[in-house]
Amino acid sequence: MAEVEEQERQQSGEFTDESEEEDSEEEPKLKYERLSNGVSEILQSDAASCMTVHDKFLALGTHFGKVFLLDIQGNATQKYDVSSVKINQISLDESGENVGICSEDGKVQVFGLYTREGFHESFDCPVKVVALHPQFSRSNYKQFVTGGNKLLLYEKNWLNRWKTQVLHEGEGTITNVKWRANLIAWANNLGVKIYDFSTKQRITNVLRDNVSLRPDMYPCSLCWKDDTTLIIGWGTSIKICVVKERKPTEMRDLPSRYVEIVSAFETEFFICGLAPLADQLVTLFFVQDPTNQMDEEDRARPRLDIIQALPESCEEISSDALSVRFYQDNECRDYRLEHSEGESLFYIISPKDIVVAKERDQDDHIDWLLAKKKYEEALMAAEISFKNIKRHDVQRIGMAYINHLVENRDFNAAARKCQKVLGKNMELWENEVYRFKNIGQLKAISQYLPRGDLRLRPAIYEMILHDFLKTDYEGFATLIREWPGELYNNMAIVQAVNDHLKKDPTNNTLLTTLAELYTYDQRYDRALEIYLRLRHKDVYQLIHRHNLFSSIEDKIVLLMEFDKEKAVDMLLDNEDKISIDKVVVELDGRPELLHVYLHKLFKRDHHKGQKYHERQIGLYAEYDRPNLLPFLRDSTHCPLEKALEICQQRNFVEETVFLLSRMGNCRRALQMIMEEQEDVDKAIEFAKEQDDAELWEDLISYSIDKPPFITGLLNNIGTHVDPILLIKRIKEGMEIPNLRDSLVKILHDYNLQILLREGCKKILVADSLSLLKKMHRTQMRGVRVDEGNICESCHSTILPSDMAQPFSVVVFHCRHMFHKECLPSSGTIPGLQFCNICSAKRRGPGSGILEMKK
Tell me, what's a Pfam family for it (predicted)? Predict the structure, then answer.
C-alpha cells in the first residue's frame, strides 16, 4: 500500500513533500506527489474548498473567496477575488475559455477568462452549485445552471438578455451538479435527478439510500464516465447508471430516454469522490471506524482505492492510505476528488493539501521491481519498453542484475547474463572477465565470451585457456574445439600443451587437443600422426578437409585396421588421388583387408577391378563364401575354369552347379544337384531355368526309381512337360507318397488351363466383334464432298465448275476420291473396284466404294 508520508518538523505545521511505498509484495497501481510551488503558498494562509481540472490548467477555489488559475505544476498564473467567503463550486467549459463560480454568500459569476464579460449576480441565499454547458463558448445561448434551494437554468435570448427557467425545486438544497453533453445530473437532499436538455424532460430520480446521514456532512459525489454513464456515490453506496434510448413502441407519454442502474453496491467507508479509470473506478474514502478498533492515525487518513465494479458488489484492485496535511482535522465533506480526462491524473483536494495521483509508468514499474530485487523481471521490462523508459537504462539494470547474481554466488547465471547485457562493450567485458578471475570463476564466463566479429584482446582468451589447462583438461579441450584459432596465440598454447604432455605423455585428451591445435596451425602431418596413433574418429574428416591423401599412401593398413568401412569408402571416393593398384599393393600382405576393399569396389563398378577378379575368387572362397555366388553371377571377367577348380577343391556344390551350367555342362550340373544335394525342387527349378527337353528327360530318368522325386515331379512338371509321359514310365506296383494328391493337382491344373483358354477365346471373340461393328459403323458414315476435294488420279477438282452438267464421282472408304473415268477397269471381279493408292500400299480400307452420280 502506497502512502504520501508526512513528517512534522515543527509544531507550526511544516511538512515534507515525499512519497514512499510500504513494503508490499503487490505492486501499487498509482504513484503520488504533492502539488506544490504556488499551491503551498496559497494554502499556508488560506484553505482549499473546491477545484476543477482542465487538460491545460487547474482552477482552485478557497475558503476566503478567491479563485486561482494554476498550471499543471501548481504555479499560480491568475487570481480572482470573487467573494470574502467560501467558494462552493467552479465549472469550466470544454474549451477552458469560460468559467462559472458560485460562493457561500450567494454570488454567481460566469465570465470569459480572457474577457471578464458575462453573468454576475448575487442571490439572497448560499449558492452551492454551478455548471456551464460543455459547449458554452460555441453556443449562442450561453446556457448554465446554478442554484441553492432550486436549480435554475440561465440562457441568453435573441435580444442578448438572460432568461431564467426553474428546472427543479422543493426538495432541499442542491448540493452537486454535473453537465455532460445534453444531460444534467444534480443531487439534493432526497436523491439524484437527470435532466435531458435536448428534450427538456427530467428522465429519472435515483433515491438516496441512507437517509440517516446528513447531506451537508456526507455530500453526494457525481461523475460522468462518458456521455451516457453516471456514477453516483453517497455515503457508503455507489450506483452506476446508464442512460438508454426507449424503444418507439414503449414511448407513450414517457420520456424518450430512461435510466438503468447496472451496478449498485455498498462500500466499507464513506465516499468523498469518484473518477473513472478505464473500466475500473477510483474512489476517495473518508475512513471512520465506529468500533474504534483502528489505530488513531489510520482512522482519520483518507484512502484512495481502485475497484472493479460488479453488478451487486465490487472487487478491490488496490488500496492506498494517504497522509495529507492536517488530515486529523478533516471530515468527509472537506475532501474532493477531481480527475483529468486527457491524462490519468487524479487530484485529492483537502483544505490544506492537494495530492496528485497518477498511473505508474514503466520507469516506476522498474523502480519497484529493483526495490524488490526482481532484477530479471526489471531487465525484461526495460528491454520490452526501452523506447518509453526515461530514467532507466537497460545496460545499467543488467549490470545491477549481474552484481546481484554474483553476490548470491550464482556465477553461471551471472555469466550467462553477461552475453546479453554487455553486448558489444568490450571494456565492460574485460572488466567482468577480470572480476570473475578474482573470484575464481573463469570457467563460468568462458563459454559466453565474444568470439565473432567483436573480440577481446588475445591475452584474455589465453588467460582463460591457461586456467583450464591447469585444472580441467576436458574443459580445455572443449574450448579449443569451440573457439576459433584466431582468438589466441596458437603457438603459445601449443607450447603449454607440450609442457603438460611431458608430465603425462599418454593423456588422450591432451593429445587430441594438440592435434586440433596443429590443425589450426596447418601442420596437418603432425595432426594426422597423432590421430592415427590415437585411432581418432576425426582422422578421415581431417584427410578429406585438408586433402592429405599423399600423406596416407603408406598408412592405408592403419586406416583399415581402425575402421574398414570408412577407410574403404574414402579410398574409393578418391581413386584419382590414390589409385586402385596402389591400394592393392599396400594391402597385399593383408588378404582379409584386400578382400573388403575389392568387394566394395566390385559393388560400385563390376568392371573397374576386372584384372583382380581371378584373385577375388580365392578371397571370396576364403573370407566371404555367401557373396561368392553373387560375384560369379555378376562378373563377366572371371575365368570360369579357375573358379570351377577352386569350387571343386572346396566342394562348393551350389557354386559348382552354377559354373557348370554357365560353361554349358547342364547335364553334369543337374546330376550334381540330384546326387550331391538330393534336392528335387532345385533340380526342377534348374530344369525350368534351362528349358531344355533333354534335361527334363534326364531328370525323369534319374527320378523314376525314387518315389519322393516322382512326387516332386508330379507336383511341378505340369506346365513344362506332359505329365502323361512321366505317369506312363512309373513302374507298376511302385508305392509313391501322396500320389492321389499329386494326380488331383495335375487334373486341377489341367482344368484351370482349359478354363483360361476358353476365357481368353471368349474375350478375343467379343473384342473382334466389337471392333468389326465399329469398323462397319465408320465405313457406313457419309463422306462430305465439296470444291476443296481433288481427284487422286488427275489431281483436278473433284466437282465440275458447272454443277448443271452430269458427273460421276467414286469415293472409297479410305476417303480417297476419283472421277469414275479416271479409275481403271474393275478387273477380274465385275462391279468391285479398289483404291489404287491403298491397294498399291497394301493397306485398307480401300476396297469399299461409294458412287455418286448426277
Answer: Beta-prop_Vps41
List C-alpha distances in Å: 555 to 9, 531, 569, 592.
94, 12, 15, 16
Sorted by sequence, the CB contacts under 8 Å of residue 749 that are 6+ apart come out as 718, 719
Give yes or no for a contact between 4 and 32, defined as CB atoms under 8 angstroms apart.
yes
597 lies in the same domain as 612: no
Full domain range(s) for residue 353: 26-46+270-359
d(CA 753, CA 723): 14
Q: Which residue among 309, 343, 359 closes a domain?
A: 359
Residues 439 and 462 placed together within one structural domain of the fold? no
Question: Are 467 and 506 found together in one domain?
Answer: yes
Question: What is the residue-wise DSSP string for 465-496?
Answer: HHHHHHH-HHHHHHHHHHS-GGGS-HHHHHHH
Domain boundary among 511, 536, 561: 536
Query: CA torsion sign, 793 to 799 to 801 to 802?
Result: positive
CA angle 166, 168, 170 (to 5 degrees): 115
Residue 368: phi and psi, rounded to 5, are -65, -40
Q: How far is CA 804 from CA 17, 367, 788, in A?
A: 127, 115, 18
Number of separate domains in the chain:
5
Distance CA 264, CA 772 (A): 97
Is this model's pTM higher than 0.90 or not? Answer: no
Same domain, 355 and 375: no
Distance CA 149, CA 168 (A): 9
| CB contact at 8 A, 277 and 344 | yes
Express each pLDDT in 532-544 by its tens digit.
777 777 777 777 7
What digits encode the pLDDT tens for the residues 267-290?
A: 999 999 999 998 999 999 998 765
CB atoms inside a 10 Å sphere around CB 245: 9
